[in-house]
Design brief:
Elements: H1 3-7, H2 13-23, H3 36-44, H4 49-66, H5 73-85
Helix pairs in contact: 3-4, 3-5, 4-5
Length: 86
């Protein structure tokens, strides 16, 4: 059973960390919800796991597109801007 089935749409850090681990490439250190950018996005998700997942994915994609190896303020801002546009 995946994190969303276990928690409904309610965001909890344990489920978020399981989702992040499952989404990580083999032989990489998985991100955690304790990452400062992901923590800020969790706060912005208003308790919704789905919203957190969309924000986290947008931040990760932004960082990858820019070729940076870590999430930063620019990736956080890009994710939040994308969410506002939806």
């Amino acid at each position: 059973m995946g994190p969303l089935q276990e928690s409904g749409d309610r965001l909890d850090i344990e489920s978020a960390n399981r989702w992040l681990r499952a989404a990580s490439l083999d032989q990489t250190t998985p991100l955690t919800a304790n990452d400062p950018v992901l923590s800020a996005l969790a706060d912005a998700s208003e308790g919704s796991f789905l919203r957190f997942a969309r924000l986290a994915a947008a931040a990760i994609e932004d960082a990858a597109d820019r070729g940076v190896s870590a999430l930063d303020d620019a990736s956080r801002e890009a994710a939040l801007a994308q969410a506002l546009a939806e």
